[in-house]
Write a structure and sequence with these properties.
It comes from Chondromyces apiculatus DSM 436. The chain has about 160 residues and is α+β, with helices and mostly antiparallel strands. Helices cover about 20% and strands about 45% of the residues. The protein has one domain: Nuclear Transport Factor 2, Chain: A, CATH 3.10.450.50. The longest helix is centred in the first third of the chain and has 19 residues, at about 25-45. It is globular, with a radius of gyration of 16 Å.
């Protein structure tokens, strides 16, 4: 195994931070970075079709919003979530770590979600994300997504949305 750092700052990418690779498959790592960049760009643009196109039809998604899990490309969920933002979404991926082989990969990192909401409120939170990917017909696709926010263990069950990296 070799450790290397891959910059993800090409295009509008996952931010100016770098991703760390813990694999010897540099080509797969670069492909996964491109997938993440394209997906993040689609989320920022609130482009439903582009964002869901990166998922397999049988993807398992554990998102921030109910229900507990979703299977497949969640067009309805993306549409509903994007509609709650006035203008573009700030979606910044930080400290992305990628582990990959020739046809399977996973990555994890922190994500900042910010923007003006249609309710007049502003959102600016950090969440944790883990994604699993698989190469399908020569293209990398997201097969699993898990996003979460910690909660305070003081009995209040409040989401710890005030945490910053």
């Amino acid at each position: 195994m070799m450790n290397e750092t891959i910059s993800t700052s090409t295009s509008t990418s996952t931010s100016t931070s770098t991703s760390t690779s813990t694999t010897s498959n540099a080509a797969a790592d670069a492909d996964v970075c491109r997938l993440m960049d394209a997906w993040v760009e689609a989320v920022r643009a609130k482009d439903v079709e582009a964002s869901v196109s990166h998922y397999t039809s049988d993807a398992v998604i554990f998102g921030l919003a109910p229900p507990l899990s979703i299977r497949g490309q969640d067009r309805e969920g993306a549409e509903g979530w994007y509609a709650t933002f006035e203008g573009p979404i700030t979606y910044e991926v930080r400290d992305l770590s990628i582990t990959s082989s020739e046809d399977v990969a996973f990555c994890h990192g922190l994500v900042r979600i910010a923007g003006a909401r249609t309710s007049g409120e502003a959102t600016d939170i950090w969440v944790r994300t883990t994604m699993g990917m698989r190469k399908v017909d020569g293209a990398w696709r997201i097969t699993h997504e898990h996003q979460s926010t910690p909660f305070y263990m003081d009995g209040s069950e409040r989401a710890a949305v005030d945490l910053k990296p």
